[in-house]
Each structure stands twice: as structure tokens, then as C-alpha cells.
Known about the structure:
By secondary structure, the chain is mostly helical. Helices cover 70% and strands 0% of the residues.
Amino acid sequence: xxxxxxxxxxxxxxxxxxxxxxxxxxxxxxxxxxxxxxxxxxxxxxxxxxxxxxxxxxxxxxxxxxx
Length: 67
């Protein structure tokens, strides 16, 4: 067998073994509380930046159309 094929076979086998053992982990007791991720100021900043970029693009396109 070629060296590259052996290496890819070993890497694939290692990946499969690690993924199987990761799925076998016991999550333990339910910690309770809200399982959802919090939406904080970072999402709001990204949304505001997206809106500002969209407005800027539309204004630039509108000014190019009038020239």
C-alpha cells in the first residue's frame, strides 16, 4: 500500500473511533433552567451593522443611477 493511503486509512479509523466514543458519553442529570442560548448585545450589533450596510449600499446605488 502507498504511504498516503495508509495515513488516510489510519486518520479515518481514528476519526470513527473518536466519534463513536463521543456519542457514548452520558450527559448526566438534567441541570434544569433554560437550555436556550441567550441572545445578547452581540446579535443586536450584527443586525444594526447589516442594516447600516444595506442602507449605505442602496444610497450608493441610487446616487449612481441618478448620475
